[in-house]
């Protein structure tokens, strides 16, 4: 019975054109919930779901993710009139602390790039993350047809982002020179040792293992943070950075952009530049007022 209702729900997500990764994670979470419950999924009570949530031994962020999948399933079941009441309506959603941006320092990025030269594919991934702002999943999905050379040495890349949202990012001539080595391949250009297309988890694992192997406490995603922060340091408008990262919400972009004290200091200095002139006028006025 549970398998049937899970399949029905996944079929609904498929018709809504949900991302394959979303459907995989949703199915996995519902199967784990089914194994925990002592009754059919559609027979769960608020108390059952509360007991399930309290049994989770993962971080708050993961509890929130798992709970979101469960809430979405029961909302669908209720809207589809498969159940009279939604037992997940009041399921607790943990409050997640605001993330702190953690861009990889330039010297460490340089070390990571130098150490990856023996693996050109990995080297290219690091460039796409640090100089184009791509996520691991977006790197894995790069296809030859997504790359449009501009005739001036660089290119524009159509990136397949989260939620099926595509965006176009600039690939500098220096980065395109490395990316070009894979454009002879049909379809997805990054491959595993067995010739099969690369998958996001493997991209993440390889990059993380590389960082750990050279003693750096960073992940591929911190290169994306570096991309955003460095653009702002160069004077880019934060809305342009938002578009380059593929964020729908500007608040999300602000999480990625590390605050630069030096950058902020320049703005504060610029704000008070007129004080020197004002001070000179005040001194002049005092002299004139003296008998």
TrEMBL record:
Residues 99-270 form the Tyr recombinase domain. The keyword DNA-binding applies. Residues 1-78 form the Core-binding (CB) domain. CDD domains: DNA_BRE_C. Pfam families: Phage_integrase (PF00589). The keyword Membrane does not apply. Keywords: DNA recombination, DNA-binding. It comes from the Bacteria. InterPro entries: CB, DNA_brk_join_enz, Integrase-like_cat_sf, Integrase_catalytic, Integrase_recombinase_N, Tyrosine_recombinase_XerCD. Belongs to the 'phage' integrase family. This is Tyrosine-type recombinase/integrase. It comes from Rhodococcus baikonurensis.
């Amino acid at each position: 019975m549970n398998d049937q209702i899970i399949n029905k729900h996944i079929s609904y997500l498929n018709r809504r054109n949900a991302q394959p990764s979303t459907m995989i994670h949703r199915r996995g979470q519902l199967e784990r919930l089914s194994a925990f419950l002592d009754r059919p999924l559609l027979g769960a009570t608020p108390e059952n779901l509360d007991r399930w949530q309290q049994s989770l031994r993962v971080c708050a962020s993961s509890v929130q993710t798992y709970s979101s999948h469960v809430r979405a399933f029961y909302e669908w079941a209720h809207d589809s009139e498969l159940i009279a009441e939604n037992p997940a309506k009041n399921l607790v959603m943990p409050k997640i602390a605001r993330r702190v941006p953690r861009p990889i320092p330039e010297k460490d990025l340089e070390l990571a790039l130098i150490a990856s030269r023996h693996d050109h594919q990995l080297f290219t991934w690091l460039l796409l993350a640090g100089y184009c702002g791509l996520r691991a999943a977006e790197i894995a999905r790069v296809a030859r047809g997504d790359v449009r050379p501009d005739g001036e040495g660089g290119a524009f890349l159509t990136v397949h982002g989260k939620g099926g949202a595509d965006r176009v990012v600039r690939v500098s001539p220096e980065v395109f020179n490395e990316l070009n080595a894979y454009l002879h391949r049909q379809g997805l250009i990054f491959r595993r040792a067995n010739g099969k297309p690369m998958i996001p988890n493997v991209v993440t694992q390889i990059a993380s293992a590389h960082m750990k192997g050279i003693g750096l406490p960073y992940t591929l995603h911190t290169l994306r943070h570096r991309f955003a922060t460095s653009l702002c340091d160069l004077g880019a408008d934060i809305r342009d950075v938002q578009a380059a990262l593929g964020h729908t919400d500007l608040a999300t972009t602000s999480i990625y952009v590390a605050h630069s004290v030096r950058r902020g200091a320049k703005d504060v200095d610029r704000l008070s530049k007129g004080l020197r002139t004002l001070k000179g006028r005040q001194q002049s006025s005092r002299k004139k007022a003296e008998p």
